[in-house]
Amino acid sequence: MTQEQTAVDGDWHRVHPASPFVRGWVALVAIVYFFGRDTFERTLQGRGTIGDNINERTVWLLVGGGVVLLLALGSFVLNWYFTRYQLAEGFVRVNTGFLFKQQRQARLDRVQAIDIVQPLLARIFGLAELKFEVADAGHSAMRLSYLKLAQAKQLRATILGRAAGIADGSETVEVPEAPEQVVLYLPPGRLVGSLILSEQSFFIVLSAIASVLISVLTESRAFILYLIPAILGLGTAYWRSFNTGYNFTAAISPDGIRLRYGLLDTRAQTVPPGRIQAVKVSQPPLWRVLGWYRIRVNVAGYGEHHRNEGEHRTMLLPVGRKPEVMMMLSLVLPDPGTADPERVFTAGLKGLDSDGGFVTTPRRAWLLSPLGWRRNGFLATDTALLLRSGRWWRHLVLVPHQRTQSMALHQGPLARLFGVADLVLHTTPGPVAPRLIQAATEEAVGLFDQQAARARQARKLQNLAQGNSEQWLAQLPPAAMPVLPAPPTTRAVQHAATQEEQDHG
Amino acid sequence: MHTAAIDPPGIQWLRVSRKYVTVRLVEWAIGNVIMIGLFSLPLLFVQLGWWKWPPLWLAVAVPSAFLVLALWRLVLIPRQVRAIGYAERDDDLLIRRGIFFQRTMVVPYGRMQYVDVSVGPVERMLGLCTLKLHTASPGTNAHLPGLPAAEGARLREQLSARGEARLAGL
Predict the structure, then answer these.
(1) What value of ipTM does the predicted structure carry?
(2) Which of A441, A445, A459 sits opposite B168 (nearest CB)?
(3) What CATH class has B84-166?
(4) Where are the domains of chain B?
């Protein structure tokens, strides 16, 4: 499909020539509008494009506009000409700039996630932006905009293939796209339902009642007028959630979890196995009636961007019922490390007290959280730590042991009085902030020590299996490529080897 | 020395230098003298008769409240410094601090991305330094102030070497 774009080592490629126009069309339209409006209006009024007086501003406007337009186009072309990328020796390199040159490079085996983004205009032209988060590339992601869609997909497959360790850098063969299997589709009806029943709707209803009451009491109709900006803002927020949540599809492939969504602007995310740092399943009170849950994740690099964008990128499941939650959790954590994951996760989602083996806040500290003390709790399985909290807003946080960065125990004077302490787990930036609240001091200290040991053990296993390179498929013989991604533990490798085998390339 | 309920059992804490108290005292003096000076201005203006509004009791009460608070902090400084401790274990570094709000943190060597050593002007005069550990998480706010320069350098080398040996991916 893309003969000119094979992933030959060391070749430098340019992005699609149309990309600066797709990116900068707003500027072009603005220039044309600003300088051409006068002429356009004249033509409409039938006065002739240029007035009788040659000194009229129209000419100057047109000439000035032309110059500015040419300058803009020139800079676009130069920008395009000097933007080049290369895939070689386990690195991706991107060169940009013609006055101030910049070369950025990233190690392929540290790829945390790859997105293919298609804003509306790019989608119309069949173009796509490839964006990847790399753990050692500092704060910002590397992006290539724009490529042809097929080319972007091909490049994604190549990068993922090399990152997974199934295609080494010396080959000039194209890496085929990993086969995928759709596991979840979110019907638009449920998305709308979830928006209607979301937290923001709750506050809207509340504030609507309040404003009606106020306008009745003060007998002023003008009060409604002040609400118009608020309504507009909320409309935008709803629209954005709808636009990005539309057509949400989750699929699984040897490359990892694939998420696709979007109505006008579409985005396809690929998160390789083992790159998810923490998971949070939550349920706002209004969703409880329908048994809906939401799953958000921390992935290195996702949390550090524009807030609105990050908000949607970290969404693993915008709304789903319990079986779907269980399935997504099984994708994130293929080996739950417990004999009865169904029971344990159910207890984590809706349980109280010691259901499923959770250890809760001791009874003596009930005053500190009169509602939540029966729910605040933790449970450590062989592979992950589960933290449960919230009686009304229910939360369940999962942190895989080998993803724990560091930990801290906190205890203030009040907590000391009641003999409880908090355990905070540090993870990469994102929506999930794992914190065990108000555990009995001795439990918390015990967990602190055990958790450090577990994390150490999990890291050792991971290093053993991968030789420190983070190539998640390299440890498997190429013939035994599992359908589901193998987590980086020896146990799971044995487990996966018994599954259906599939040739990957 | 000081061990609290949330410290893991059997840890021998190494303490930071007592000279760090001086650093904290200088920081305290700079911060609080300016603060109390600012809040005493209304009192001065009222006394001089330039201002009418703050009644005398209020103009006296606000700076004296701050003064009491500052003195309280001053009394706490030596104890706070004594409460800072660290311990090198085989696979991780433990750091503790705080008297009222206690915090005990564990940073695995394999998770450390880099180690900073910084020296401020007062610290330089006293031959101290501050060590800071960074992991992939911004939540790891692990800094160890008041280390003697030699100990800081030793710790930095030690941590880097151990981190190198145990470095794991994210």
Answers:
(1) 0.88
(2) A459
(3) mainly beta
(4) 20-80, 84-166
